[in-house]
Amino acid sequence: MKGKGMKYPWAKWILGIALAYAWGVPAIAEGKITVFAAVSLTNALKDISKQYQMETQIEVVVLYDSSFTLAKKIAEEGTLADLFISADQQSMDYLAEKKSIIATSRYTLLSNELVLVAPIDSNIYNVAIDKQTNWKNLLDGRLLALGDFDHVPAGIYAKQALEYWGAWPMLDQKIVRTNNVRATLALVELAKVPLGIVYGSDAITTDRVRVVGVFPDQSHKPIEYPMAIVNGHDNPNINAFYAYLKSPTANTIFKNNGFSVVKK
Questions:
Q1: Which residue ranges make up the annotated binding site for molybdate?
Q2: Beta-strand pair 33-38/83-85
């Protein structure tokens, strides 16, 4: 775990959660559509991939991780992925600069919200997030979990929001950094931390946490999910799945999983 201060005794939990997401994916195989996607899309893309295979008999294999980790992998080993879906524009910008994506295929598909979550049995309720938020009392000597703000989009948005409200200087030493947003969620589910910052779409995937606050949109950059076809992978199969992700069927699944579909 990066950052100042001592290592915390539950660091092994973070490592275990990270490994579960790194290893808990199917092998990439030929003859299938391979998607690299932000880990916050896990539930929605599982549903969409299943539905697409039922309709077309074409299998979609998805590798999930933090967006910039995947972007770097595509830039270095571009032949692995056919399609990339990021949880931020910056990771897609990086691939555009590397000329690793087909520029004309870049399309902002979804948006999300940033929320504060607590374990289901927490005594924290209805936190108004603004300049008056008393983070010291809320944390009560414990730590706040969020994605690693050096590269995890959810963590970057969280830092932006906390800076906006003037809370960052006080919280800088009271943060557990995680490798992706689902690892943050897991720490809250396990009650290893009293609070975590995740996406609204993550919060609805479990009954072991509840949303106790919503970060106002003006406190952070828009949370947008662009997608693009990887350079050299423009073919009818990939184009068909790319189009399917914009379809009413996929839109319904995304909405059911807590995302907002960006209107064009």
A1: 40, 67, 154, 181, 199
A2: parallel
